[in-house]
Amino acid sequence: MAIVIRMNRHSRHIPTEQEVRFAEQLAARLRHLRERTGYTQEQVAQRAGISPNAYQHYESAQSGRGAPMNPRLFTIFSLANAYDVTPAELLDIDHDIFGEDEDEDEDGRWLGEGGLWV
After folding, report:
1. Which of these, 4, 28, 74, 87, has the minimum number of CB atoms within 10 Å of its CB?
2. Greatest distance between any 2 Cα atoms in the chain
3. What is the pLDDT of residue 98?
4. Mean pLDDT by 10 residues, the chain (118 residues)
5. Which residues contact 21 (CB under 8 A, 6 or more apart)?
6. pTM greater than 0.70 (yes/no)
7. CB atoms within 10 A of CB 83
8. Residue 18: what pLDDT?
9. For 59-63, which contacts have Cβ atoms below 8 Å and span 24 or more sequence positions?
């Protein structure tokens, strides 16, 4: 039985360690892609259709309130398009942030939650 926690707009979500690591690894990936392409932060933001300030927050892994950045799916697609990569390539981060390393097959491929191929 799953527990559902409903939060209203006044609730404060305390980020998990995994959420923080995900934001940090995505930020590092964005910096790497930007340095590889030679774009400025402003150019990437314009190509992705987001504000330069928002992009700076993604690269720093922090929101303006100090919480880890949590981009929406649409933003992931927009950022991937800005770098001419697929969303999967953009999210090429270390899967062990979720502590799932024990779910690897004999060839080291990650099976993911519930043993599903990812």
Report:
1. 4
2. 49
3. 47
4. 49 79 91 95 97 94 82 95 93 58 48 42
5. 97
6. no
7. 20
8. 86
9. 59/27, 59/30, 59/31, 59/34, 60/27, 61/20, 61/23, 61/24, 61/26, 61/27, 62/23
**Residue 28 structure tokens:** 């590092």
Q: What pLDDT does 63 receive?
A: 82
Burial level of 110, CB count in 10 A (0-12/13-18/19+)? Answer: middle
Q: Does domain 17-96+108-115 have CATH number 3.40.50.300?
A: no
Single-letter amino acid, residue 91: L
Instruction: Determine the 3-state secondary structure of 104 from DSSP.
Output: strand
State the residue for tokens 């910096």: 31
Contact 16, 67 (CB under 8 A): no
